[in-house]
Specification:
By secondary structure, the chain is an alpha+beta fold. It contains 16 helices and 23 strands. A seven-stranded mixed sheet has the order 17-18-16-15-21-22-23. Strands 3-2-1-5-14-13 form a six-stranded mixed sheet, sandwiched between helices. It has a two-stranded antiparallel sheet with strand order 4-7. The longest helix is centred in the C-terminal third of the chain and has 27 residues, at 377-403.
Amino acid sequence: MGRYVGAIDQGTTSTRFMVFDHSGGVVSVAQRPHRQVFPRPGWVEHDAHEILDNTMAVAAEALSAAGLTAADLVAVGITNQRETTVLWDRHTGEAVHNAVVWQDTRTSGLVERLAGDHGPDRWRAKTGLPLATYFAGPKATWLLENVDGLAERAESGDLLFGTVDTWLAWHLTGGPGGGRHVTDVTNASRTLIMDLHSLSWDDAIREELGISASMLPEIVPSVGRIGTLAGPSAGPLEGVPLSGILGDQQAALFGQAAFSPGEAKNTYGTGCFMLLNTGTEPVPSTHGLLTTVGYQLAGEAPVYALEGSIAVAGALVQWLRDGLGIIEESSEVEALARSVDDNGDVYLVPAFSGLFAPHWRSDARGLLMGLTAFSNRGHIARAALEATAFQTREVLDAMRADSGDDLSSLRVDGGMVVNELLMQFQADVLGVPVVRPVVEETTALGAAYAAGLAEGYWDGLDDLRSNWREGGRWEPSLAAGERDALLARWSDAVARTLDWV
């Protein structure tokens, strides 16, 4: 039996391959970015073939860097940017269009049409989701309606639909020569087509979206053997079992070992995503959250989660760097923000493509306000970091209202958790401790855990729980009155972003 577990971590901006040992420690990692394609304002695309090539390249790099081969791996798991949509030809394996990314807003007109007189919550009871540009199903509909020839090819059964996990799994298990066309329950729950209760595709919604049943992948548990990596695309992973798939945010929940109802994690990446484990019953949200599948072990009931999705978090720091040019490297933002004592009453609401949870307002646009002649780059940098913490607080309030659960602490991960100023301000704004694990790459770790668990490399969830180690903790230190005043100002700023478009 192999000694390690591999994880393909296919994210919005890059693809990584990571190898983990039994304690959850990182043995090896390799990473490659892919191009962000912006054909028009509000449109975001990726080249699915570039992502596939990068996946093979980083797997080869990570294995060779550690002197390992496929024989050293017990299994591989996949975690992926969710909702990003690929259509491809089942006979050739060629993508028929660039992947349409989760951030892309081209479906806004279609989403309004589907909502019609029913409103955005038309399918919420079945799917746990509002009608929004975020989700995968309408992205596929848009491609079928707007790209010449695709509707006919779909009708004749030549096209396959999938999120990036599906695209990779199909190619890596044989492609046109018998690749498995699957997606796991967590990714399927982000399409707007899956019934949350039966975990199956809803025919009425599918027909309304104009997607033929032959295009849709089989829905499988997150943890369980899917197939063996084989064929021209498997490359250095030939012969390794593919035994787990989790959408990236659910993978982080799994990697944080948040297996009990009431446990939550927040991932600070391009966007910001908080998930709260709600147990084996889906909790409907009346406060602007998504009800989603957290994970499912083969042969067991699914575990559900409430999710608050914030569109812009780390992306705001990138915008300070690339859009405004007030920093040269993202890592400089903390020092710049520390150059001032407070935000100087400056607020930055990053509604660049509308507001996600808990507002779901596509008509909102970004706003930098409270500027005076006294304001400087430091205030803007500080306002940018604080925006992430304020948005997280809005989501946490919605979770408390929906679930009735009070959070005792928040487990955090993702690229921004190295920012001590942000983490302290987050604890201050939430009024609860913020805790970072030793292994911060919880998304890849979650995919590895899923795959290893399926193959008996770990004995069970308690085995994974015992791997979790605290790596940093921030206690709230802000007086309640000050916190309330800041939150009131933030709410006022958010209100002023609405109805712009």
